Amino acid sequence: MLDAAVKALSQMISPPMRSILWRSIGLALVLIIVLAIGLQRLLSWFATSGEVWLEGLLGPGWHSSLDVLSWIVSIAAGLGVVFGGIFLMPAITSLVASLFVDDVADIVEREHYPAEQPGVALPLSQAILEGVKTALLTILVYLAALPLVLFAGAGFLIFFLAAAWLLGREYFELAAMRFRPPEEAKAMRRDNAATIFTAGLFIAAFVSIPIVNLATPIFGMAFMVHMHKRLSGPRPELIAPARQLR
């Protein structure tokens, strides 16, 4: 697993990958700004009008709880773009990865597995759908853990573990679906859940590093291409005829 991570890191700055890397970083920056500003405005609305609306919906018995929640949200809104840039990064990288999955995987497969049949490119709509689902689930998990971040350090651990599970899950399935039907790819992920979660810890650590985390889609996808190959084991049906004759 460590060897796969090292290979992914070293290939990120290789000439064939640089164009994808810069495009990925540029798109991630745009999404960070747009989503962070949108989140800041949403939180600002909730800290003012939203509290009144929810109290009218839930009843006066929720007044104290909503006051506390409004205070938490006010702090989050005050952090603005910085808050969004940090806590939305895993969701953003999920969206970006869905657009570059095949570009990255093709380069990794050509360089490290030249004697094997390359994977089949995913339909763009399917890749984007997977990215959107992971991004939305990430945001929901993070919002649920937000009060724990503000009141206890355990929230940061929850963020990290959630990112490891969510990102490991998405990147592995995207890599696997180049060779397998979606249901088979998901079943393989479930069968190797512990290994993929451990691999996801590498991606979660990468996405936790400011600035560097803009390249998470490249690292995560390259890393999981290697992991899928290793978990697949010997697959004669994927080996090119020239290799079979050896």
TrEMBL record:
Cellular localisation: Membrane
Pfam families from the UniProt entry: EI24 (PF07264)
Secretion signal: which residues? none
Entry protein name: CysZ
Mark the transmembrane ranges: 20-48, 68-89, 139-167, 196-225
Q: Could you tell me the keywords of this UniProt record? A: Membrane, Transmembrane, Transmembrane helix
What is the membrane topology listed in the Swiss-Prot or TrEMBL record?
A: Multi-pass membrane protein
Q: What is the scientific name of the source organism?
A: Bradyrhizobium nanningense
Keyword tRNA-binding among UniProt keywords: no
Asked if the record carries the keyword Membrane, the reply is yes
Superkingdom, natural source = Bacteria
